[in-house]
């Protein structure tokens, strides 16, 4: 199941907050909100404004655009790793890998 944008942003916020050992209350205090609001953001239950995302990124001590880029960073790293693995293989093995992926994702 694909995550909504709100869920993706929430997951990034939660990851950064926990990595920095901050509580939801500490973030809420920084942005002038409640810890329950921060919880809703982290669960993707609240559509938030860009202004609020900027406040959250400031509270997390990260640039807004860096925060927004984090969602695609892991995907890009994974795709690049898969690509690197495939480049080491013959055309026949690459085709086999493609067929396996199609089978796994029911794309046959």
Automatic annotation (TrEMBL):
<protein>
    <submittedName>
        <fullName>Transcriptional regulator</fullName>
    </submittedName>
</protein>
<feature type="domain" description="HTH cro/C1-type">
    <location>
        <begin position="13"/>
        <end position="67"/>
    </location>
</feature>
<keyword id="KW-0238">DNA-binding</keyword>
<keyword id="KW-0804">Transcription</keyword>
<dbReference type="InterPro" id="IPR010982">
    <property type="entry name" value="Lambda_DNA-bd_dom_sf"/>
</dbReference>
<dbReference type="InterPro" id="IPR001387">
    <property type="entry name" value="Cro/C1-type_HTH"/>
</dbReference>
<dbReference type="InterPro" id="IPR050807">
    <property type="entry name" value="TransReg_Diox_bact_type"/>
</dbReference>
<keyword id="KW-0805">Transcription regulation</keyword>
<dbReference type="Pfam" id="PF01381">
    <property type="entry name" value="HTH_3"/>
</dbReference>
């Amino acid at each position: 199941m694909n995550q909504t944008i709100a869920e993706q942003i929430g997951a990034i916020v939660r990851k950064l907050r926990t990595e920095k050992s901050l509580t939801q209350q500490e973030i809420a205090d920084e942005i002038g909100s409640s810890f329950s609001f921060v919880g809703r953001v982290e669960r993707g239950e609240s559509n938030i404004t860009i202004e609020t995302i900027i406040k959250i990124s400031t509270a997390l001590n990260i640039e807004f655009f860096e925060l927004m880029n984090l969602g695609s960073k892991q995907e890009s790293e994974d795709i690049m790793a898969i690509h690197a693995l495939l480049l080491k293989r013959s055309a026949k093995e690459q085709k086999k890998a493609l067929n396996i992926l199609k089978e796994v994702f029911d794309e046959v």
